[in-house]
Amino acid sequence: MAVVAGLVLSLLALIPQSPASAAPALLSQGRTVTSSSQENDGTPASAAVDGNNGTRWSSAFSDPQWIKVDLGAAASVSQIVLRWEAAYSTAYRIEFSSDDNNWSTAYSTTTGPGGTQTLDISGTARYVRLTGTARATGYGHSLWEFQVFGTTGGGDPQIPGGGDLGPNVLVFDPSTPNIQAKVDAIFKQQESAQFGTGRYALMFKPGTYNNINAQIGFYTSIAGLGLKPDDTTFNGDVTVDAGWFNGNATQNFWRSAENLALNPANGTNRWAVSQAAPFRRMHVKGGLNLAPNGYGWASGGYIADSKIDGQVGPYSQQQWYTRDSSIGGWGNGVWNMTFSGVEGAPAQSFPEPPYTTLNTTPVSREKPFLYLDGNTYKVFVPAKRTNARGVSWNGTPQGESVPLSQFYVVKPGATAQTINAAVRQGLHLLFTPGVYHVNEPIEINRANTVVLGLGLATIIPDNGVTAIKVGDVDGVKLAGLLVDAGTQNSSVLVQVGPEGAAADHSANPTSLQDVFVRVGGAGAGKATTGMVVNSDDTIIDHTWLWRADHGDGVGWETNRSDYGLRVNGDDVLATGLFVEHFNKYDVQWYGENGKTIFFQNEKAYDAPNQAAIQNGDIKGYAAYKVGDSVTTHEGWGMGSYCYFNVDPTIRQQHGFQAPVKPGVKFHDLLVVSLGGQGQYDHVINNTGSPTSGTSTIPSQVVSFP
Question: Where is this region: Disordered (predicted)?
């Protein structure tokens, strides 16, 4: 008994007399950080929270300057450590905020000593900002590290950033054995898997690879892991052909090539694709053939930020858009070849040959991409360009490098709840290749968040929810994602900005790049509208919104989707807009000062009869409608095609509909009846000759009004 009593007393002595509290933790490392300025590309704000005492943030050489870290959630701050570089702040203040709007000063000094300062500061904050008001030198304010310590008060569990890229990202270096065999095995699996669930990214570390022919099938992306295309060179090819479909390339969808240099084996690389198959940031040291072997049908496509030293041969390609690139020449044109900001592009000459050429692209920002900085994975986020011409990667690439540690690396099985918690915590999102079901919207409400998909990562909304919602905030980047409608109707699949959004984002717009929407094809799916853009200044750079005309779950009502794209925001720019087969309007544009450079459309094949598409007293719904109240809008290089194979007697009154006002302008429009399966009466409104017969000859309008 005495022994037992002694043990009890000993145990009681170990019990704390008050509730235990968590030890302070480093909360700032790897978090989202912004600043008022940076000295140069080598001193970004992110370097002050990367845990590396050899990298730093440095501001412009003026006062005041600030750096701000988002802790991801409200925290109890207990200590701040400042590791100053020689260019330190003599006067500064530390400020706290819970909403990034209202700030309180937690500490200030006018006699800062530099070096390493440990400040015991207490308070509750999600956002912590250091504002420097006086400098010790003529240089900027410069920190090796800005560290915030404290504890979080419950709420979302802490989600770690970084980690491995999962089993469907294959990473090669020049010494990897059997590269060709491994690439061939993926292609064999994916060559004809048009509606399969396999998703793959083939990533190549910087170096030179000899005797490679990487054939790229469905849901496969190939990319170099250098900062520039020439960092990763193939003495060989990256090939897309159409042998699986008897030489017809019109269904070569959902694949990509990025950030590689090619020395093609026979001098010309073949990239025979149609929609949703971007060719970005590539350097072809030779020619580029966009047609399948045998010159069968092809209906693409898109090139951006690429250098083709030789000639591009479209051959049988019906239409194509090339942006901010450099080419050695262009071979021919079929219906609609459009260029903006392309060095070496053919001169404006629509309708014969059918070239639409803009000297520059008004606003552009290249797609973010994964790369290796030494042995560290980072995502490079290119800077916005204005009136761009030529590639972005001559000289030092302009933009920001974000360490993978600041990303939640999303893998199949992740829930929307965890994904949203990661965003609230301050992490960006990197979706590894796979198919993701979400039962609530993925919500991106933090400015400058990067959401990047690898290997055509696919998001399917369950229970009729919207798959992705972006807040009315600056600088969100959505890229490399396929959103596939679920079996229960969603009102919208992708929404950028809430209804009524009105904030000015002209300095730092949200961008959507290679964001694709599909309704049906992989199974029955429904959505009233594919994509809605409410935020002003949004850049839509290459999208394919597709109501399926073949595959599983296809029928006039089976995969019902009335509208493809609706734009309500002002000053929205679309570069490379592909929208097809929706039951009513494919595009509705109600925002002011909208611009579209290149539009490709097919009306829904499966309309059962004329009555099914009757639009009041108008025969059919326009492929592209500008709202009656709009006063300024402009479009270049735009085509709509019909193929009413269920009822070839259907007539479509026009492909385009717009108010007749001085500020509403269109350049180089066409409509085509494919083989006489249905006809157009006009091109735009009541302007333009009707199509007729079975000869598939376009009716064109060079300028409207």
Answer: 32-54, 686-705
